[in-house]
Amino acid sequence: MESGEYFGVGSIVSCKTCYNQSYEGEVLAFDPQCKMLVLKCAASNDRGSFNDVHMININLVGEIQVKKENSTGAPASLNNLSTQRLNVRTKLEVEKKKRFLTAMASGVTVEGQKLFLAITKTIDEVCWRGCDIVVLDQVTISPPYKQENVTGDESSKAFNHVKKIVEKYLKEMNVNSN
């Protein structure tokens, strides 16, 4: 271990938090000032080619034990993280939130907002045009957001798919309200 470090990068550590969660893995990083330990552990989904990475606040750890010191002095190499996938995911989440806020600002009913969110779970290309929900630039759902308010090319796959989503959503809402 280098001076000032409590847990050497590359060492194997096991710990148990005050929440009774146990972790064992390779130290990827340790910040003694923040008391944060980053461990690379076996994948929780049992896929050998993946790992879980846990950030652990040492202040919340009741027991900790160094199982094996890193004798080489050099940490094991890490696979590159797909930051591109993270960036795409983040952008999609931001877009969804913006669309939702647009709906709220335009005075859309709660029922319309809920239907909008239900549609965005399966289709990304959904937007508001006033109080109308527009899906894939082909299908429009107008207030009061019932099946008979779905308009578009009735022979298209998009129209039929959106109509089924609306039907399923309305059935679920009726079941939940009874």
Could you explain how this protein is built, in words?
This protein is α+β, with helices and mostly antiparallel strands. It folds into two domains: 57 residues, SH3 type barrels (Roll), CATH 2.30.30; 95 residues, no CATH class. It contains three helices and nine strands. A hairpin with an 8-residue loop joins strand 3 and strand 4. The radius of gyration is 25 Å and the shape is elongated.
Can you count the beta strands? 9
Order of helices and strands: EEEEEHHEEEEH
Ranges where pLDDT stays below 50 over 5 or more residues in a row are: none
Strand order of the largest sheet: 4-3-2-1-5
Find the structural class using helix and strand composition: alpha+beta
Rounded mean pLDDT is: 81
Distance between the termini: 63 Å
Strand composition percent: 25-35%
Global outline: elongated
Separate helix tally:
3
Q: Roughly what percent helix?
A: 25-40%
- Number of domain modules: 2
Task: List the SSEs and their pairings.
Blueprint: E1 12-17, E2 22-31, E3 36-42, E4 51-57, E5 61-68, H1 83-105, H2 110-120, E6 126-129, E7 132-135, E8 139-141, E9 150-152, H3 157-177
Antiparallel strand pairs: 1-2, 1-5, 2-3, 3-4, 6-7, 7-8, 8-9
Helix pairs in contact: 1-2
Kindly list the characteristics that best describe this protein.
178 residues, alpha+beta, SH3 type barrels, 2 domains, five-stranded antiparallel beta sheet, four-stranded antiparallel beta sheet, 31% helix
